[in-house]
Specification:
Elements: H1 8-61, E1 78-90, E2 93-105, H2 116-196
Antiparallel strand pairs: 1-2
Length: about 200
């Protein structure tokens, strides 16, 4: 703790600091609550995405064996050409927002390939979209968690350190100034009584 001066100017400075801490603390607490709420929403969204992916995966299992047919399905049939994201702002935190993705489906002979290939390509697109969105939501959560840690540290600093420390400084200065004023009055009375004799 830095040594404080026991003066009226320092008393004013400490009172101004206390006033500032008290003014900013509710804002920080509100930001903390907002971040906690947004993190809960991202957790809910992630669960929805992973549940949907699991459901899609289960539906694929029913007919996944046909992918083993030789020469019909290759990894080169579907390619992500671009990922579209935007920027959002939650409580002062810049977050990415998933807007979609573009795919390129390489041409294949419609007569030579089985009918299920179209369904497989659409299913793969949907699964990739879900995975990409989950990655973006994970990044949102990561950024919100980081900001929540910082905000919580600031709230704790104000509540547990700065406000009590400043109150203590004010009390110490007021006691000292009160003692000085009392001593000054006593010295004045002593001087007055000495001159009255």
């Amino acid at each position: 703790m830095a040594k404080i001066r026991l003066t009226k100017n320092e008393l004013k400075k400490q009172k101004d600091s206390l006033k500032m801490y008290r003014r900013y603390l509710p804002t920080l607490m509100l930001k903390k609550q907002q971040l906690q709420g947004e993190i809960r929403l991202t957790d809910i969204r992630l669960k929805e995405l992973y549940d949907e992916l699991e459901f899609l995966d289960e539906s694929f299992k029913a007919w996944i064996g046909v992918f083993g047919e030789t020469g019909i399905f290759t990894q080169d049939i579907l390619k992500i050409t671009s990922l579209r994201t935007g920027q959002g702002n939650i409580a002062g935190v810049a977050i990415p927002i998933f807007e979609g993705a573009d795919f390129e489906v390489f041409s294949y002979d419609l007569i030579q390939t089985p009918l299920w290939l179209d369904k497989a390509v659409e299913g793969m697109k949907k699964a990739l979209l879900l995975e990409l969105e989950a990655e973006i939501v994970e990044e949102q959560k990561k950024r919100l968690d980081k900001e929540l840690r910082t905000t919580t540290q600031r709230v704790n600093l104000f509540e547990k350190v700065k406000i009590p420390e400043t109150r203590g400084n004010i009390k110490k200065i007021q006691v000292y100034l009160g003692d000085q004023q009392t001593a000054s009055v006593v010295r004045g009375k002593i001087a007055k009584s000495a001159t009255a004799r």
